[in-house]
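Appendix B, Record 12. Input sequence as logged:
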Amino acid sequence: MAAPQTPQLSSLDNVEILSIHVNVTEKNQSQEPADNEFDYSQRGQWLRAAVLGANDGLVSVASLLMGVGSVKEDIKAMVIAGFAGLVAGACSMAIGEFVSVYTQRDIEIAQMKREKDKKSEIHENEEAGEKKQLPNPGQAAAASALAFSVGAVLPLLAAAFIREHKVRMAVVVVVASVALMVFGVVGALLGGTPVVKPSARVLVGGWMAMAITFGLTKLIGSDAMKN
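Logged structural output:
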């Protein structure tokens, strides 16, 4: 009686099995980094408030100092105006962010309630998870106010200790320019975005704000002093 013969795989079958094994392995390896990859969008809420606050504080106070300095050389006038701009701006940013984010939060909660009746019990667990991702008004307000103060204090300190008027104005521009570039780089790194374009964008925007404020204030202030 002949012994049963074991079927042998052809070379074509071996190639197909090896190809399937390689594809499965590559698929698993490609999925692993995606699972471990950091989601930069989680930083979006507080990062937006912090970057906006820092840039706004820096540009606002630096422009304010340039405007006052265009018509008055008195260092006290510049420092007092800059400090008033710092306090007023920080309060304004905090209140504005709080109201804005709370409005967004109310809209999202209302939308979730409208969709609640249309969802089954299976989706209710997903809804509970969505509530944890709702925007935090207090966090946004605090981040915005703190960032505004940090940005605003830089040109204010630069102007406070320099007596020579022209040198003081030049130092304010230089300090504001360097700080704008730093804020742009930090914001890009924290958000996982390219560095060059954000830095150039905030720098050019800051220069425009300071130049416009200086020019218009000097024009209006000079005409008012003549009268």
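Residues 44-226 form one domain.
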